[in-house]
Amino acid sequence: MTEPSRPSRRELIAAAAALTAAPALLHAAVPDAPSLKGRTILITGASSGFGRVGALLYARAGARVIATMRGVPRPEAETLAAEAAKDGLDLHIVEIDVTDDASVAAGTAKALALAGGRIDTLINNAGIGITGPVEVQDMEATKLIFDTNVLGIQRMLRALLPQMRAAKSGQIFNISSQLGRVIVPGGGHYSATKFAVEALSEQLAYELVPHGIEVTIIQPGGYPTRVWQNRNVYTGALKQRSDAALLAAYEPFTKGMGEEDGSGRSADPADVPRAIAEIMAMPAGTRPLRRAVHPGAKPQEAINKISSDVQLAWLGESPLGPLIKAVHD
């Protein structure tokens, strides 16, 4: 069938902003966190969910926060700025589209200028989901999710690691998922991208040991953020341009594509930024490589332990052993 053009980013932003799930998170109170005074934090994907709640939590804990999002100006940027101004927070909003090289370059340059040339903590939070069976994922959907969830992190790393290496210190948090370790059929390429984030992050952690920079992978479970509604926009567009026979071949996985509302999830989205703030406040050299975050089941923890044990057994006594042990011990 003929493929219509996918929705523009402005259309996606407008559609997401109109959804009823947003207000509850938009004005949610942010709980206390350990003191983060003296830190300068850049977070991507701060328009909603973990990013927005986190931006306010870190700023209220004393950090200078550079909250980035695409498509500025937009209502989410205005309300975040207003809330920060009301509370006198050191919070700045900068436009960064992690899928765009020029936007990352311009946005990180502006962020570094606001930070006086030094950003000590990068939180790679921006990400999207597109559901459906693997064969249904056309190349447009495939490129979009990998460009956002994986290449977006790589762009941000290359933009901000040089100044961290020069300072011989820094922290990087990459937001993965339970689904970066376990797989649900019909989940599209989301797990594939998050598995990639897991591997990229662990390799990076070893390589940054000599530079005094630490990496932590955050693995959230399901939370009632706007990710579900945003995902429906992308998934709905994919379903619309997919061949009917292909969709029929994979029922029941394709039947509900674009209709997930996130209902039944009541965990507090602030769990994730609280965990990040707690890890930030830990002494250097004691911070974990991975942290599973959810009040319910955390099936990935068993895999995390086995993975760590295997890495230590395989390379712990090799010439690379000091790097491996520094991360896992």
From TrEMBL:
<dbReference type="Pfam" id="PF00106">
    <property type="entry name" value="adh_short"/>
</dbReference>
<dbReference type="InterPro" id="IPR036291">
    <property type="entry name" value="NAD(P)-bd_dom_sf"/>
</dbReference>
<dbReference type="InterPro" id="IPR020904">
    <property type="entry name" value="Sc_DH/Rdtase_CS"/>
</dbReference>
<protein>
    <submittedName>
        <fullName>Short-chain dehydrogenase</fullName>
    </submittedName>
</protein>
<dbReference type="InterPro" id="IPR051911">
    <property type="entry name" value="SDR_oxidoreductase"/>
</dbReference>
<dbReference type="InterPro" id="IPR006311">
    <property type="entry name" value="TAT_signal"/>
</dbReference>
<dbReference type="InterPro" id="IPR002347">
    <property type="entry name" value="SDR_fam"/>
</dbReference>
<comment type="similarity">
    <text>Belongs to the short-chain dehydrogenases/reductases (SDR) family.</text>
</comment>
